[in-house]
């Protein structure tokens, strides 16, 4: 199989240029102009950031991409789907308020914002998954599927379940309606280690489904209510909650790949990853920790699989940031060194299965040629 082309530019911005201009140059060199945008409605999938988190992509980057789309004759809009977990983006009203609070609006980005799965996360399209093994029909936010062209603009960072959140995570999980997110998450359901639990109740505050109760000061999870979203796993400061289904993370990765294929199949698509502010966890958290790695740069490709692989390789070539969670884990000699920054950050996570499965079902190619844009 011929190597896919991934284009890269660093974050140096000498006098006479700036990062938005460098991003525009990158995506033009990567071939975005080969897409026929004329009068085409173009979905730019982005994460607007949970309020309180400051590592999400600035609106300036979204505007840079939207301006290129308009220059090429397209009609861009920024979009995301509602979340499954408790937070400020669970319905369209709160989601839009969160986006505005974080600086996203028509003046700052040059285009409108549409929450793709509607007011309550129920406006979805049922999309067949060609080659799907776990998902035969994906539930995707309708506005995303109604678009003529699809662009992903992703913040590449760590993630507590998938190892990292990049292009495929932004597409597969991010474009799923609330029911689609439940379908991707529900193969594995966490359990509480009663000996470790301190009864702080932070986990229950992060459960949107009333699945966590307390007896004698210890949490327990009702699996008949739990949807397996993993928010309690990320919320627990004492590692008292774990996933006892060892295959669940791999199944989640596979479903993300299959949902991603449903989104991009049959229409033009283009993908951008920004490896900056590499926080250990997802931008869905209402906080962000010290970056685990230095800023690397901006990447773009027509191939979402090659794009994520290139970014993962670039990250693993870096040294951990001093004072970060990653450095803390690396220095802890009681922990196993996995020789992978994302797995060392969150040992319960797993990322290679997603890319392996995505390649298997024809979504893209893990072999790539990296082309630097100066």
Automatic annotation (TrEMBL):
InterPro entries attached to this UniProt entry: 4Fe4S_Fe-S-bd, DUF362, PSI_iron-sulfur_center
Swiss-Prot/TrEMBL keywords: 4Fe-4S, Iron, Iron-sulfur, Metal-binding
SUPFAM superfamilies hit by this protein: 4Fe-4S ferredoxins (SSF54862)
Gene3D superfamilies: 3.30.70.20, 3.40.50.11440
4Fe-4S ferredoxin-type domain span: 188-217, 218-246
Highest taxon of source: Bacteria
Name this protein carries in UniProt: Ferredoxin
Cofactor section: [4Fe-4S] cluster
Record's function text: Ferredoxins are iron-sulfur proteins that transfer electrons in a wide variety of metabolic reactions.
Organism in which the protein naturally occurs: Faecalicatena acetigenes
